[in-house]
Amino acid sequence: MSSEIPIILASHGPFAQGLLECAEMLIGEQENIAVISIQKESNINQVREQFFDTYQKINQGNGVLILVDLLGGSPCNLASELVLTQNDVALYCGINVPTLLEILGNRDLSLNELHQIIIEVFPDSCVKVGENLKPTEQFDSEL
Predict the structure, then answer these.
(1) Which residues contact 49 (CB under 8 A, 6 or more apart)?
(2) What is the mean pLDDT of residues 117-125?
(3) I need a surface site. Which of 39, 81, 109, 125 has the fewest CB within 10 A?
(4) pTM score, two decimals?
(5) Ordered DSSP codes for 78-101
(6) Contact indicator for 67, 87 with CB cutoff of 8 Å
């Protein structure tokens, strides 16, 4: 079992896939990273299920890091559901290439240690979403 933190990259359109491809061009192929791209025609319930299934598939018992494009966007909102229902998920929005490269270079650390790196190196560009969430009874069903 790998000790590297598994990652889900999620975005509107192909942005997340492009981030991963860019990072791999710069530092080499990465393992245990999943990409979720929400398209205009995406079904919200199917994407919600995709998030949960992906989380279960890549989780190795040391937590899952989810990186999304925009705070309040559909990828962030759907990933927030995992933050509220699972105790080993960290979600950050505002992902960019420098942040992703820093994270990929430190995937052998714990989620908490990665959090420290993100807030120290990129305090203004990434937001830890879980610190702003409050559990609700019902999840929104619109994109």
Answers:
(1) none
(2) 79
(3) 39
(4) 0.86
(5) HHHHHHHH-SSEEEEES--HHHHH
(6) no
